[in-house]
Amino acid sequence: QVQLAESGGGLVQAGGSLRLSCAASGGTFSSYVMGWFRQAPGKEREFVATINWSGRITYYRDSVKGRFTISRDNAKTTVSLQMNSLKPEDTAVYYCAGTDTYGTTRLANEYKYWGQGIQVTVSS
């Protein structure tokens, strides 16, 4: 059974930075597509970023392009999300997710494994 655990969330002022990390245990991490999603109060969960097994292919939602960077370390079985120039609208619970599909995917329903989520709050 694959388990994912996020860390690094918290409260930050607008314009600041946070780095989220997700530690994976179980399964074959190096073969998984990994992603980050977020859910703000009263809104649906939305795609943030995804990375393929090698780390060479990444995709981002438009609103975070140029500000967020997803990366992975297969040796340490971790995936990270570096978030810079944070805005109040980035406030949400952020979820790490993984799946064994080919390539990458931005669709939440294609991810098999999910972390518990971690709160990110950006104050104005």
Main traits of this protein?
49% strand; mainly beta; 4-stranded antiparallel beta sheet; 124 residues; 11 strands; 7-stranded mixed beta sheet
Structure description:
By secondary structure, the protein is an all-beta fold. The protein is built from no helices and 11 strands. The strands form 2 sheets. Strands 2, 4, 5, 6, 9, 10 and 11 form a 7-stranded mixed β-sheet that branches. Strand 7 and strand 8 (78-83) form a beta hairpin. The protein is globular, with a radius of gyration of 13 Å. The N and C termini lie far apart (40 Å). The mean pLDDT is 96.
Secondary structure topology:
Layout: E1 3-7, E2 10-13, E3 18-25, E4 33-39, E5 46-51, E6 58-60, E7 68-73, E8 78-83, E9 92-99, E10 113-114, E11 118-123
Parallel strand pairs: 2-11
Antiparallel strand pairs: 1-3, 3-8, 4-5, 4-9, 5-6, 7-8, 9-10, 9-11
**Could you spell the SSE succession in H and E letters?**
EEEEEEEEEEE
Number of strands: 11
Average of the residue pLDDT scores: 96
Shape: globular
β content, as a range? over 45%
Q: What would a concise description of this structure say?
A:
By secondary structure, the protein is mainly beta. It is 0% helix and 49% strand. Strands 2, 4, 5, 6, 9, 10 and 11 form a 7-stranded mixed sheet that branches.
